[in-house]
């Protein structure tokens, strides 16, 4: 493992702030998911190392505050780029092409990281340009070159990435994928050098030209697992989580890369750690296929640096994939989830969003309540700037929802504001809607407008 980690990294240190969240069932009745539960953030003196054996902790789980790593490049985005960005630099790449949703935290992280290193980023974002730029879309536009791709074309991600990379490279440049970079570095088996010099067919040093690297959506590449290995190695220190105690890591999963990296890192280090991944954007078969693909690629590229015997036990899977507490189509928000985000923020000072991190928080709370000895550790994957884009999506004035307002007018206005489509969280709000349903919709709009006023 030490040889695998002996390389340049994007992050100056693998450190992260660890908070301990106390879960109390003495909470007051409230609107939202956690109606009878309250939270307390023990961020000053979390029980770590030898203190974990103390009996007076009560119900609690740990949270890794990776959302604090960087203003824009944080959470699992920072971890996945930790080993990838130095490789891109070392191979004289001039341009990076990647893709994501309109409010992609991954795309924004790539744009910022490239700009910090003097590289050009090209971001293929799904859908149309918003009327007002905000959140990660705004950050992507400031730091990178944004191209909006119609949804019908975006479905073939591999094609649009290669097509755009070819256009940038032109006749004199070339294109490399992340695995191409790994092949060169593992062939030389030299990670200490700060630069790899490419040699042309005539044996001379290649002249400087355009070299385009393609990074998959969400950095779903084997090289992205390196940063998770580094994090696992850091956490296994005796004064933190140690190497002997069992832990259940909980993480929200888009591409699933982060969960796979954590599991594989724990396996290679011989740690008794389990990873529970909350599925958000794919089926369990899709995630298991991603798991098999990444493990196979990682073993192919880095197997000579690891104990491959430990990798032989992964046939049945190494990640525990679970559904969200309330499954839904990716990106949809259900009743009570905005209030839950507000409650968590107000009681702990930790921001979560309803699409990603709330899903992990719910599952961490559920496991902790079911088993006080579960030793749950939630990885905060960042991404909270997406709340700005989320709020922007609902351009409806709360004046339309004052007491006694016509519900039919409200529903029609919602549909018009969202280009003819009614958000799922408002599907139940129509003629004959209950007071609870009306309150939830009004609360969501009030929350949205508070962001729009910033």
UniProtKB/TrEMBL annotation:
UniProt keyword terms in alphabetical order: Pyridoxal phosphate
Family stated for the protein in its record: Belongs to the ACC deaminase/D-cysteine desulfhydrase family.
Coiled-coil portions: none
Cofactor dependence: pyridoxal 5'-phosphate
Protein name per Swiss-Prot or TrEMBL: Tryptophan synthase beta subunit-like PLP-dependent enzymes superfamily
GO molecular function (one): D-cysteine desulfhydrase activity
Gene3D superfamilies noted in UniProt: 3.40.50.1100
